Amino acid sequence: MSPTPHSTALTDAPDRTVTFQCPGGTARAGSGTATVEIVVPVYNEESALPGCLRTLHARLTEEFPFPWRITVADNASTNATPAVARRIAEGLPGVDVVHLDRKGRGLALRTVWGRSDADVVAYMDVDLSTGLDGLLPLVAPLATGHSDLAIGSRLAPGARTVRGPRREVISRCYNGIIRLTHGVRFSDAQCGFKAARTEVLRPLLAVTQDNAWFFDTELLLLAEHNGLRVHEVPVDWVEDVDTRVDVVSTATDDLRGLWRMARLKGSGAARVELPRRPAPAAEHPDAVLAPPTRRGVLSWEVGCFTAIGIASTVGQALLYWLLRGWWQPAVANLVSLLVLTVLSTEANRRLTFRHARDPARPGAPGRGRPVRPRLSGHLRDGAVVQGRRPQRLTGSRNRRAGPRVRRGHRRSLRRAAAGGLPQQGRRTQARHHDF
What we know:
Helix content: 40-55%
Structural class: alpha/beta
Order of helices and strands: EHEHEHEHEEHEHHEEHHHHH
Radius of gyration: 28 Å
Oligomer: single chain
C-alpha cells in the first residue's frame, strides 16, 4: 500500500494557518455553516496557475455562499511553480500553498484532503476545463448532508463538452469498461471536478493505494461499493490541449487499477467502516406506513431471476444459431454459453440482487443497515428456541401430534410474538417446532 498522508513530507504550510473566507470576502474561523476547501493539484504549472487562482478566487468571493479556502497542492514541481504559488497566495486572502516532495495527483489529494479541517473538500484541475458554474451544485448536496460524494460528469444527460474525437472515444471507452467490469452507476470517473464530505472521506483514503491518475476511479469504486451516495452534476467542459497526461500510459495504469480493485472487492478488503446514514423516515406526522416485510423483495428476486434465466436461454440459442454458420458446433456452443453466462450474471447482480447490495435500504439485513428484530434463538421455522437448536419431530411422534397440537402451536406462537409466552410454553414450542 502506498504511504499514507502522514508519511508524506510537507515543506510548506503544514499547520494550515490560512483561515476560511466567508461570503463577502471576510475571514472568520467559524461561521456555523459547512466549510469548503478547494484543492488545485499542480505539477509544473507556473504559466497556468496565476490565471486559475485569480479566476477562482474572484468567483468564490463574489458568488460562493459557504466559507471557503483554496489550497494549491504542488507535487514535486521542478520549475518555478512553488514560487509562483506563494507569491499569489501573499496577495490573495484565503489561498494556501502546500508543497510535497513526491509527484502524483492522487498523492497530493490524499495528503491535503487527509489533513483538511474543512467539512467538505473538493478539487479541480488547474486549467479550469470544467465550468465554475457547476461548483455550487457540486458542493451544496454535501454541505447539507444529503450526499456523500459529488462528481462532475461530462457524460451525464445535460452535460456539454468541447473536445477532440480522440479524447471523446477514450473517455467513453474507459467509463464503459468501468461500468461493464464493476457495475457502477456513475457515468464519468475521470472528470477533474469532485468533492466529498470529510467525515466519510477519511476512512476511504486509508484504503486507497494509487498515487496518480487512477486515484479518482479508485475512490469512486470504494465509495459505491460501501453504499455511499454519489451525486452527479452535468458540467460544461472545454478541453485544454496543453496537458501533462500521457494518455497511453495512464490508460494502461487504469486497466491495472481496475483489476486490482476487482480483486480487492472480491477479497472483502474494500469494505470500510463508515458513519451510518439515518434510515429513511416519513416526513408527514400522520403518514400511514406499510409494515416492514421482505415479501415484496423476495417476489422481485424470484421474478427477475426467472425472467433473466428465460432470456439467457433464448439468447444462447440465438447466438449459437448465428455462430454455427462460421464455427464448429462445439466452439459455437462454448462461446455462446460463456457470453450469456457473463451477461446473465451481470444482469442478476444489477437487477435481481440490487436490494441485497444497497446498504442504505431500510429493513434489509446487511452491513450499514438497520436490521429488523428477529426471534431466532428465538423464532425459527415456527418455533421459539431458548439457547439451543430446535429438534425436528419425525415419524409417528409427528403424526400423533395431530391437528390439536398444531392449533395450540399457532396460539403459542402468537403469544410468543407478543412477549407473553410462559417458560413451559417455550419448551413446548422447542419440542413441536416443525409441523
